[in-house]
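for ur thesis appendix - Cyclic nucleotide-binding protein. copy paste whatever u need, i formatted it the way the template wanted (i think)
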Amino acid sequence: MEIELVEIRDFLAQRPPFDALPEETLNQLPKSLDIRYLRRESNFPPADSDDSFIYLVRSGAIELRGESGKLIEKLGEGDIYPVPCQLIDLEQGHNGTAVEDTLLYLLPCEKLRELRKTSATFDQHFSESIRERLKRAVGGTRPTPSNNAAHMSVEVHELLKKPAVFINVNCSIQQAAKRMTENNVSSVMIRDGDKLVGIITDRDLRKRCIAEGLSSDQPARLIMSTNLESIPHNALMIHALLLMTRLHVHHLPVLKDGKIFGMLTASDLARQQNTNSAFIATDIRKSNTIEDLALACKRLPDLQLHLSNASASALHIGESVSCITDSVTRRLIEMAEEKLGAPPVPYVWVAGGSQARREQTSHSDQDNALIISNKMKPEHDTYFAALAKFVTDGLNTCGYVYCPGKAMASNPKWRRPLRAWCEYFNGWIDKPDPMALMLSSIFFDLSPVYGDDNLFEALQGSILAKTKNNGIFIAYMASNALQHRPPLGFFRIFVLIHDGKHDDTFDIKHRGIVPITDIARVLALAEGLPATNTTDRLRAAMQTSSLSEEMGENLEDALEFIAILRMNHQAEQIRNGVPPDNYLPPDSLSELERTHLKDAFKVIQSMQETLESRYQLGRFG
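the 3d part is after this line
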């Protein structure tokens, strides 16, 4: 084979979907290609070509624009333009221009049809929709699971070894003990109709019945525990462990759709924990000093690495890391209350930003605030200022660095009674100025961490009542959401960072993840949806007219794919002893990953255009 043909063959062998062709077919393919050179500013497709070819960009760059001049897509090295063979539809009347000197390979449509018969994977590339490719991509971005870490992403229902065991509220203590013995379990749930009203454990039988000399004929409800916490069946194992550790309990009722599903025990968790050194939940709970907590938190990057090795989804990794942050925060608040005494009035500590959305990584700063009862008096702020300083300083010591914008409870502005918070949000919503929009990514994403949840729920209810169907405010939010746009093409110099610190990298958080997070927030506020997690917001919005099921699933898959690329990048940094960041070198991506990433960007672009049209955002330009 001639040297030039060998070079073409080697190029094709590294580019999807040609890399899926049989070796002999690939060896012969270069002979079927025509080669065309376009000088910069030349029209594309070439004026003297017909519609019997698809085009593969060997080098250079091409921009495709619609009749209005709007950029539709950018083509770079390895990209295919299949329109002439009627494989995809682009905007009618589009035209292309070579923005660099460009070398093209032309493959006859007839030859393309032959090739599609030789490889199912090759054919799939041209027959699949973006939606189908993204779903396949999401399953292909995760590494092979590590058995040592696989338990980390297990959901609670997968841990249950036995069906739910329960008795009626009117049963006797003897009947409860008999039911436990028959089923060989250490606890039984008490229900009144479909409602869970209590549980009885072996410990309850010993302490409240036998030790007290109570007759076994007495009603079981006399010895049951009624101050119950429960957990959803689809919660992660790490969430269950943190909850059981915090409550000092060995049994946790599991509910599905509000109904009894099963009972999770400490033994169920013990079977899964094995010797994973990254499991820091117990150490956090046992910590009595900030230094102890900081020591436990040093293993947080290892936790993220273990989860990544276990093929956990980005959704599960974010939930797990956020659970740890919640646990650290609660322990610090408990330490503060032990030092300062009981609070003078009720309050709730709330998290903002990625912690509230359950989307944290081990590389996160802190965003938090205090919502205090309206009974607060001016002199009470001395207590809450001390509490906030203790906790935010402690979080900083534990690796959650201070918020650069000072969006923390230690800032008096974000340590206010409920009525003041309602006034804040009323002002931001009625007059969405640049400051309000800047704060939206933090304070329109809140979740309670410790204290009186009723205060948070009152504020959230007030916010959503004002944002729902508020066209002017939502239009401003949508306009702000479009400030972060994904690139419409390949990774070339103009989309990479050149700041001397992160040269030749790509900010995958702000160019890929933030746009979807912003879109989901706009949809949730517009529909008055209480969900905070981005995936939960998209799923909730799909139940309304604001988001179609197809687009919602596309956005969900795009988010998962981009987030997993980010997690894999950070996992590699952790392995190499480098602090994790969001600056991804494009050279670290395979050609297939680049192709799928472009698909994800197209999904984001499509939804951003929908918002732009829906809220007539041209008037904000």
